[in-house]
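ARCHIVE CARD
SHELF: 3
SLOT: left
DATA:
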Amino acid sequence: MASEDWDSELLEEPLFILESGEVYRNPTEVKMSQIVLPCHANHCGEVSVGQLLKWMDSTACLSAERHAGCSCVTASVDDIHFEHTIGVGQVVHIKAKVNRAFTSSMEVGLVVSCEDLFSDQQCKVCHAFATFVARRTEAGKVQLKQVIPHTQAEQVEYSLAAERRRMRLIHAETINDLLSWSTSQTGPECEEHQHAVAAERTRVESVELVLPPHANHQVSTFGGQIMAWMENVATIAASRLCNAHPTLRTIDMFHFRGPSHIGDRLVLKAIVNNAFKKSMEVGVCAEAYQGGEPLRHINSAFMTFEVLDSDKKPRTLPRIRPEPVDGKRRFQEAIARKKIRLDRKYIISCKHTEVPLSVPWDPSNQIYLSYNNVSALKLLSARSNWVLSSEKKKVSLYTLEENQKLCFKVETHVNVPAEQVFVLLSDLTRRKEWDRHYEECEVINQADEDDTIYRVVTPSARKGGKDQDFIMLASRRRPCDPSEPYLIALRSVTLPTHPPTENLNRGEILCAGFTISEELDNLTKISYYNQATPGVLPYISTDIAGLSSKFSNTFSACSEFLERNRDSLASHSPSEL
């Protein structure tokens, strides 16, 4: 590993001191440290990803069981991107803790880092989110106790866990829809190449007998062990394509469809679905049987490999020649998954400040843009270092300057139930009734019940200048529990049907939106957030400098609008709202 890859200041949460004076430690936190020995390593002297997955699964399971107080099983693992490899003699550190518990399942967050004992430096290897389910006990189905976040970091992860769970629950359906849509867009690409490698040549099948060392105390096969066996056959398939030793870079989100137990024969199959210029996708399937019973589908996964040259740079790979029918289907689906994978990595995995202001919207990235939109607002609202800039007409304006970026927050209270405030504010077509900056607002795409794309026209902030228009994705979320606020998140997107025009300046919004919290009976706190961009800053600069009351007037008008329309929604049931 290159020396510049090391991070001597690997992120650690600041200490949180309890009222008793003791240093707080998350009660579900579990740490594992393992020195990499030759028996853990591959041909390159680096820890095999299969071994790392086993360690990660064990650590996450211990964290889940510490919270649940009973045995737990792995239900799913989100996308994993491996940023670095780990060599023999280095130390692997794995930290796991429960971010949030639901009825009988919980999300466990994992951070894996690597330490060089000789240079005393550390680097981040990967992070992951795994879902564990508490097993039924003799008393029946387990009802998990709630996680109580204490630190700011815990509160953020607690809030984001609900959004990640929402994405997992519709993952399979979403992927199937996206594959159907994307394959219809890509068209035929199974061209014949003179030196293409037949996909059949990369096919691998292996069988493993599940023994007691492979299982937990409930005689179920460790999820990490299954993942390690799957990684093994996938690596063999990838090696056959390029006649070289590949490096695993990503594992797509996957779900365990059923349990495996001691005595099972686990059949593992792998094949290269497609080879791109610098990477390849390998599909892996795990099935189990005992005796003469039919095969049970345990798990399927898609893994992306690269082959590195002597300079540790990805090298060009040979083409693949797919098999007829199923092979060509897998070939086309791999092209679609590559785009989906890039969207997920580009939009979800990076910090929201690293995402371009306007990301192209299409059905293949809708769910990921929605996630990024909501999570960016949650992260912004969780910040605690806001500075009060002005307070007029019961409207408070706060600012936050960090890393040469300016954010602002506007806060007020209204005597209207939070649910009604949420309904009224989430319909942006009505915002021009109280916000003079909204001259026009139209719905241009109703993506689903919670996500809508609007076109908004605003007057120029400068005399004689052009008006501005914005293409905005609005994502709204109701709270998962009473302690959370309602959310209306806004960000810019681009649509080919609505390109910029000459008579309007195209404005952009990186992160904005409302959080709505009911503090007392019918007393609701409304907070509006905006990470100021060049298109937004002119509208707020004079207020921040204390030279204007435009924003306090706007949000006073918002309060009047909400109270004026309160009775019009009072007769509706919550389900109608």
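SLOT: right
DATA:
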Amino acid sequence: MIINTAGIAAVAVFYLVILFVGMLAAWKQRKAGRGTSSPEENIMLAKRDLGLFVGVLTMTATWVGGGYVNGSAEAVFSNGIVWCQTPFGYSLALILGGLFFAKPMREKGYITMLDPFQIKYGLNIGGLLFLPALFGETIWTASILSALGSTLSVILEMDNNLAVFSSAAVAVIYTFFGGMYSVALTDVIQLFFILFGLVLCIPFAWMHPAVNQEALVNQNWLGHVEPSSSGIFIDNYLLLIFGGIPYQAYFQRVLSVKSSKQAQWLSYMAAILCTLLSIPSILLGGIAKNTDWLNGTDYAMALTSPDQVKQVLPLVLNYLTPQWVSFFGLGAVSAAVMSSADSCILSASSMFTHNIYKAIVCPSASGRHLMIALRVSILAVAAIASVLAVSINSIYGLSLLCSDMVYVLLFPQLLLVIHAESSCNKYGCITSFLFGIILRILSGEELLGLPVVIQFPFYDDGRQQMPFRTLIMVFTLFVHLGVSFVTEQCFTKGWLPQKFDFLNSYPLEMTYQQEDISPEELHFQFMTNGKLEATLQEVELTEMGPKFDSVLSISHPKVKTSSIPVQTSKTHLNN
């Protein structure tokens, strides 16, 4: 194997540019954040001071990752545009996120996507939903790194594993020090690299002698969906659309801008750009489909195996364009990877630090302590994603899988806690979560080696032909609502003794009105502001007098302390 020294040098220059910008942003963030009471929040949300222009570009760059770019070309090469579902599904996800989720999340000033769950259900039960969120972010990062690994291994003759781990290391360095500031500013540069690099490659690849020009122009670009595959097709689209919403990487940008209106426009404008940026990959995938790889290129092999199909885009860059052009294409893919990998790594680490470590493990942790926890978790998430990236073959399959558990388990929970909060409770949350994960595991997953135990109708040839993920998602949604309604009736109407309310969802002492703030929410507000523990432990709210009134007048002006006899033990708040 002859290593492409010039190519490695070009990639090294690109990495150094990105690293310089990232570290410069980290230095400015550190300088601006000195003396603040919540340094970990500053690094997670950039002090909620992200402008609309930078916000749109960082949101777009986050979605247009390596799996997005390489996977789109792979899908068009294999089955046509109609099966290139990721770009259009995720664009619709951004639009729906802006319409129904961005405004309420930003107006309530949450720090992470998991905050409303912990406010509603308590710290421990809300923290349970961290698991599918972590799964989605980590798998997404793995798909991104896998895309870059295959590209570097083809063009530069690098070992795939070395390419994955070295690329992850570069993204980790500036994320480790600069957080959201570094991620956002590097995303702006990376997005221009993506656009310029891929667009530059198109005319050179199109005019290559090995490409059948007549077939290229007259081919069935759209492709078709077999009737037997319609269930899978629908399921994949719904998975990408609704499963693409509950991502911390999305909400981290929504929560970092200055207002709820900007959060909505951020989503809409990013959706348009995401769709437009899929066009270069679609064209390159179509070009690859009409290329005589066996007789017309130095590759001298037909693209038939799954490993070859996975590398469609890097093969086009390497064999259908001049070397200097392929370096720009490689820079585009590298930029796509960096722009999404850093975002996902920071997102998963933010949730762990804020919603697990600070909320549950070590509530009294100082800002410096939490910064250490955040940086350790950044390293851990990057390591796990890198291992997955070198273990699973299909990039497009990884990009679908990353939305799978999020769609089945997290989307119905997020929908209810935002838009039907009064209709759900802890019992519904836990029951629907367990039913959803059990059904999804028993339905099988080839990429993870899970056998099919439950065969839905029309099961054939080892595959579920029905939109089974959507069926499971809808089932978990109705289980949540049903269990919540039944348990509420049982405890509020006295059908079951209070001693059976082991989750303390309906304690007799809790009689606060709907317009008042609940003790869980007050507890969580104090936690996020670094004022945990002393206020609510072992003290009756009505006995706190004027001092408590003054606190409430600042944090929640509408609270009427005289009408809130509540149970305030730490046990209740953490259930």
